[in-house]
């Protein structure tokens, strides 16, 4: 079996893994899964972005975006490890090197 269908297969797999997050956080496209940022910067009346109470140096919209990013990464991680040894990456020392 060749690699001719690898991109559509990859896209289908990623779409399946992230189906709970489509379309509000991500919409996988071919071999890319962009993560949507917040719709607002949470600006106050003076035009200053709101910060999170626990750390006034972090803006709310950045915190929200990283929360979404973490959510997507956790979905991918949990899927990978839920499949057991069959999904682990092959040890590269067993690969055949091609020389030109």
Number of domains: 1
Strand line-up in the sheet with most strands? 1-2
Helix fraction?
A: 25-40%
Our measurement of the CA-to-CA distance between the termini, rounded to an integer number of angstroms, reads 23 Å
N-to-C series of helices and strands: HEEH
What is the CA-based Rg, rounded? 19 Å
The total count of helices amounts to 2
Described by strand count, sense and barrel closure, the largest sheet is:
2 strands, antiparallel
The whole-number mean of residue pLDDT values reads 82
Low-confidence stretches: none
Sheet/helix structural class: mainly alpha
| Secondary structure tally: strands | 2
Q: What percent of residues are in strands?
A: 5-15%
Question: Based on CA inertia axes, which overall geometry fits?
Answer: elongated
Verbal overview:
It is a single chain. It is elongated and about 60 Å long. It has helices spanning 6-17, 60-82, and strands spanning 51-52, 55-59. It starts with 5 loop residues before the first helix and ends in an 18-residue tail after the last helix. A two-stranded antiparallel ribbon has the order 1-2. A hairpin with a 2-residue loop joins strand 1 and strand 2 (55-59). The model has no long low-confidence stretch (mean pLDDT 82). It is mostly helical. The chain has one domain (6-84).
